Amino acid sequence: KTVFLINGPNLNLLGKREPEIYGADTLEDVKERCAALATGAGLTLDAMQSNHEGEIIDMIHRARDEAAAIVINPGAFTHTSIAIFDALQAFDGLVFEVHISNVHKREAFRHHSYVSARADGVLAGFGVEGYELALRRVISLLG
Ligand code: DQA
Hints:
143 residues, 5 strands, 3-dehydroquinate dehydratase activity, binds 1,3,4-trihydroxy-5-OXO-cyclohexanecarboxylic acid, single chain, alpha/beta, DHquinase_II_CS, five-stranded parallel β-sheet, DHquinase_II_sf, aromatic amino acid biosynthesis, Rossmann fold
């Protein structure tokens, strides 16, 4: 089984962007750790990142045929994108939403997520470890 790890806008700058909020690890580090975790559990990880809303929607559509689960950090689209929510509604597998920072401790505009209403679980404020924690949950659910 395949798990899609989808990261949204600005997350390509992980490790360089506001490290006091998002930490020093890069997206490449995250991908490597998640791929090792998935492989060890007999799953395949397909990691992708885009700064473009439509591309993220295309990735979610592709997941309909290719993935049993999606772990997604939609970045700022979390707070704006009904279209990403709709795409996730059209996906039948597991969905876990990850935020590196605790969005609830930050600006009010980060407190609402369009994605959470479709997510099987939400992690915020666990740093980049949140991706691995979400993946561990996927592994236990997919058996
Ligand atoms: C984020 C939180 C969002 O509010 C922000 O726009 C991001 C990253 C996080 O991982 O903490 O780009 O999703």
